[in-house]
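Problem: given the chain below (156 residues), write out its structure.
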Amino acid sequence: MGDLRSDLINTGIERLKAGSIVIDTPASIIFELLAQPRRHSDFDGSRTVQGRLSGPDRLSLGAKFGMSMKIKVPYRITNTVIEFEESKRIAWRHFGRHVWRYELTPIDQSHTLVVEFFDGRPSLSQWWLRRLNAYSNNQKAILKTLVRLKKLAEVS
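Solution.
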């Protein structure tokens, strides 16, 4: 297993947070973890994702999936996959419209650069995101998520 550290990416855009990590696994294996909602709580660095409630076993463009969540109190949320390119990119959002996106770039046959984004630019409520300190919290969570994803993917 390689270095267990992810790197902050300064996007230069206040409402777009990102981080990257190199995972010593082919992109297809990493993508398979990302495309299975039941696995999301396994790599979620924010610890807010509690588990899948509804939806397909494997995501696809337009798929809807419900998750049980917890930020101080438990709640449920339904996400919709808005970007899907097999083994390259997947993104989803819920009713608030902010986006979680993963982009996978093969370095060679057994190493993949993974970039995770939290994009608050399309959000319907900037006030709410600021109130929750979502930009700072998501930046920290991205870095933790990528390390957890690396650990999972490299043993899969």
